[in-house]
Design brief:
By secondary structure, the chain is mostly helical. It is built from 6 helices and no strands. It has a domain of 116 residues. Helix 2 packs antiparallel against helix 6, helix 3 runs antiparallel to helix 6 and helix 5 runs antiparallel to helix 6.
Length: 172
């Protein structure tokens, strides 16, 4: 008898829970889904600016190909710069002469060249990441909007430039 009562109690509770869950949860509209899943341009640019490796803003906007390219480029440039700086620090206290001096000058020149090249590549990667973050975020938001079936945020109106005043023509 107890078993039947416990089973009836659980069946009644399960039926009440599923009915309550169906009535409490309204279906989300497409605009609410877009507002919940869209990415912020400000967050993408902030992540890109604060991260020591370029490409984090693109990763935030789900643009993994360009983000991975930038992150690998900036990481390699940073590693090469740090390695050549350590090599220069290591060579700073050595005073060689003869053939060893020639080798040391070659090593020092190579380290300086790598350091300068790495600095330029790193700065270019960082600037590219800062320029890519808003573009990747806008692309993601546009794809999300199209995927949900929403219209564009503003109508696309073709621009036609008209010159004011009379048209002047010169005849030879």
């Amino acid at each position: 008898m107890r078993t039947v009562a416990v089973l009836a109690f659980f069946l009644a509770a399960a039926g009440t829970r599923s009915a309550a869950a169906q009535t409490v949860r309204p279906a989300a509209t497409a605009e609410q889904a877009y507002a919940a899943r869209k990415k912020s341009v400000a967050v993408a640019v902030t992540l890109e600016a604060l991260s020591p490796i370029a490409g984090l803003g693109a990763f935030y906007a789900h643009d993994t190909d360009r983000g991975l390219t930038l992150s690998i480029t900036s990481a390699l440039a940073a590693g090469a710069g740090v390695g050549s700086a350590f090599w220069l620090i290591h060579l700073s206290h050595q005073q060689e002469s003869g053939w060893n001096r020639t080798v040391q000058d070659f090593e020092q020149g190579t380290a300086l060249s790598i350091l300068a090249t790495a600095a330029v590549v790193y700065v270019v990667a960082r600037i590219s990441g800062l320029a890519l973050a808003p573009e990747a975020t806008d692309d993601y938001n546009d794809q999300l909007r199209r995927g949900l079936g929403l219209p564009p945020p503003e109508p696309v109106v073709p621009f036609h430039a008209l010159a004011p005043g009379p048209m002047l023509s010169v005849a030879f």
